[in-house]
Write a structure and sequence with these properties.
single chain; mainly alpha; Rossmann fold; Tyrosyl-Transfer RNA Synthetase; 3 domains; three-stranded parallel beta sheet; two-stranded parallel sheet; 18 helices; 6% strand; binds iron/sulfur cluster
Length: 390
């Protein structure tokens, strides 16, 4: 089975990335034909104004993958932009993709929603205004979903209802409508990224795409594009299937979703000192104040980490010790830290041994392999579309 999957080079990998994506890739590479690509063009869709770290991020991502065990002798690892056939196929698919498919794509809406939400949240936090994230999310959600245009007036009035000052809210709405955020995502590249994604998959005639539930609409658009192409010209594309992957159940150190923008992530390559500082500051069961209070491991994020990184025996003794108030939270965190460190230490060491030359070599050989297939597909596409070929 041929599998295609990519990741955007947007910075350091954290445990959420490892458990949500890499772990799954590691399993797939031992039995399937895998193509893993660094999606540098996708990174530009909403980060085109800030490209100074792009090359370093590409190298870091490949280094991280290999350090985690993605094996270039088993999997084809390459850079999206080095196989130009992705772009040509995307352009041709753009000709047959109705605008409405992209407008209705919930992922497009989700991405746009997240950008607006993050912008509003960061703007308010920057002004020292305390933010109720759930309320803010639902406010923006209402003003945004199921509407052709974002209803900025409704965002404004809802925020004023929460007691925020007119001055702060007006400033923010003005920035939102006229400032960087509005311009940033109102581009052809951002709007059309599902078409590029369809090309990333179909250029290799992949049969399977490992995705989280939130990315299912991308696979659906890819299938629609393949179906339409096959109907119009010739049956050359398979209809790829989504392989649903488990999302990572661990949260950031503050108990929210692990994310760079929340500053709550444990990175795969944090130093032992950074790791220790983060683990010891993790939020636990809020009702457990003293060691003598019986705890609720089922609501504690530290316990969830134990279920991933500790042995079965440790997990059950932590569970009992917490419920019966026999173990303190610091001791519990120290045990988890030891187990997490045991998992991360070899990955960290391996990462140090991967040079820039190694990365260039890996990407070059991956490109050669990927391009061989992509070229054949494009030749077929041009043929059946009756395009001129030299
Ligand atoms: S003992 Fe461990 S599992 Fe129980 S609340 Fe404290 S940190 Fe969480």
């Amino acid at each position: 089975m041929r599998i295609v999957s990519g990741m955007r080079p947007t910075g350091k990998l954290h445990l959420g990335h490892y458990l949500g994506v890499i772990k799954n890739w590691l399993e797939l590479q031992s039995s399937e034909e895998c193509f893993f690509f660094v999606a540098d063009w996708h990174a530009l869709t909403n980060r085109y104004t800030d490209t100074k770290d792009l090359k370093d991020n590409i190298k870091d991502l490949v280094r991280d993958w290999v350090a985690c065990g993605i094996d270039p002798t088993k999997s084809t690892i390459f850079l999206q932009s080095s196989v130009k056939e992705h772009a040509e196929l995307s352009l041709l698919f753009g000709m047959i993709t109705p605008k409405s498919w992209l407008e209705l794509n919930p992922s497009y809406k989700d991405l746009k929603f997240n950008l607006y939400f993050q912008y509003v949240r960061d703007f308010l936090l920057g002004k020292g205004i305390k933010v109720d994230e759930e309320l803010l999310k639902s406010t923006i959600h209402e003003a945004f979903y199921y509407k052709k245009e974002v209803d900025f007036e409704s965002i404004k009035s809802k925020l004023l209802d929460t007691g925020l000052k007119e001055e702060s809210v007006s400033d923010m709405i003005q920035n939102l409508t006229e400032g960087e955020i509005g311009k940033k995502i109102d581009t052809f590249g951002f709007f059309g990224y599902p078409v590029l994604m369809a090309s990333d998959i179909l250029v290799y005639k992949a049969e399977t795409v490992p995705v989280g539930e939130d990315q299912l609409p991308h696979v659906e658009i890819t299938r629609e594009i393949a179906r339409k192409f096959n109907r119009l010209y010739n049956e050359i594309f398979p209809l790829p299937k989504a392989l649903l992957t488990e999302t990572s159940k661990i949260l950031g150190i503050d108990g929210r979703k692990m994310s760079k923008s929340y500053n709550n992530a444990i990175y795969l390559f944090d130093t032992p000192e950074e790791l220790s500082k983060k683990v010891l500051s993790m939020k636990t069961d809020p009702q457990r104040v003293k060691k003598s209070d019986p705890g609720r491991p089922e609501v504690c994020n530290v316990y969830t980490y134990h279920t991933v990184f500790s042995s079965k025996e440790t997990v059950s003794s932590i569970y009992e010790g917490c419920k019966n108030a026999q173990i303190g939270c610091i001791e519990c965190k120290r045990t988890m830290l030891e187990n997490l460190e045991r998992f991360l230490e070899p990955v960290r060491e391996k990462r140090k041994s991967i040079s820039d030359d190694d990365i260039h070599r890996i990407l070059k050989s991956g490109k050669d392999r990927a391009q061989q297939i992509a070229k054949q597909t494009l030749e077929e596409v041009r043929n059946c579309m009756n395009l001129w070929q030299d």
